[in-house]
Fold this protein.
Amino acid sequence: MSNWTLGKNKRHYVFFDSFDRDDKFGTLSTDCTITLPNHQIINPRFFRLEQCTIPQTYYEQFAPIPLEEQAGGGLIYVSIPAGNYSPVQYATAMKTALDSASPNGYTYTVTYSSFTHKFTISTTANFELAYRTAFDAKIDANNYSAGFNNPIEDTGFALSHTSNGTAILGATQFMFLALEGVPTAYTTSRNLTATYMIPIDSNSWEVNFYQNNNEFDNRVDMSSNGRAYSTFRVRLMYFNGNVVDLNGAEWSFCLSYEKW
């Protein structure tokens, strides 16, 4: 936490890092309590979200990979565990999951191209990615994480398949930051209320940087009630209210305020 005053307007800035949360080993970095050491914010006139830095170490796995091997075994669904992956690590995780799920004992190879940002899945026997079959069975089988997302058609049997879209490990346009005890300014159609809305502009594998002057004014006004703040209950959420899991990574944000 850091705090300083700017000019005659007595603007104060407070920097929060999830690494400094009260229970570092028992809580998520995105659902925690942060206490300011030896500092109180007394009777603030407003709180403005000035800056936020969120590493893109999360992803939403919409559904397993629907796969069928020509040698038999029928349609299977291959799930990849949540984790804090680099592109190469994600390819390794995909290979492990494919090898484990193969009904015929296939050994798969999964590679990632840093040039095209696409994954290629291959093995020594024919297999297909059965998106249309899974879709017709009313299973949402778009695997956005690996870029196999459009169109929703079976690929046909072949020794190798390359994703037709770029790899995406986070498919959300906004996140919502709720500070308990601070007024809410946003409500979603899923009945989520939050203090701030954070646009997500980054591509997969990157860090999302939000700055207030680059987007819109994330400010909530406070009544003059003499309230003092030293402990903040913090939650970073998706549109539906689910807490974002950064898979062990930390994030930070900066608030500004002026006193009455």
